[in-house]
User: What shape does this take?
Amino acid sequence: MEQLPYSEKVMDHFMNPRNVGEIPDASGIGTVGNPVCGDVMKMFLKIENNVIVDAKFKTFGCGAAISTSSMVTEMVKGKTIEEALKISNKAVAEALGGLPPIKMHCSVLAEEALRSALKDYYKRQGKEVPFEIEEHKHEH
Ligand code: FES
Assistant: This one.
């Protein structure tokens, strides 16, 4: 049998995703769609004193999207907003032991959902959003 092009970590986070669900009293919620495939990711963040104390997600998407959502929610917990903003889709993919090149666009969804949830947080606080959600060039 041909070996799957996914690392063990990707498979693990796909089979046993961490932090699936919703946070009813979330501080920020971000929903993003992937223009490449139409998959959708929703991220919930609980923020206290500038620190992300909880993160959950719901992803209607492929395995790589689920794995990267799971990983990014693990990575942001305990981080300050500034630290969380430094997490790139590449960093998420690396933490998972890499993704096949054609699946890198799936990890973009995780980064954008995180930034979108943070943007929502700033809006709810009535504060100006101190960053832009980058428009990534998606590879086809
Ligand atoms: Fe849609 Fe992976 S194929 S996010």
Q: What stands out?
A: Residues 34, 37, 39, 61-62, 64-65, 106, 109 surround FE2/S2 (inorganic) cluster (CB under 6 Å). The chain has one domain: 8-122. The helical segments are 8-15, 63-76, 81-85, 89-95, 104-124.
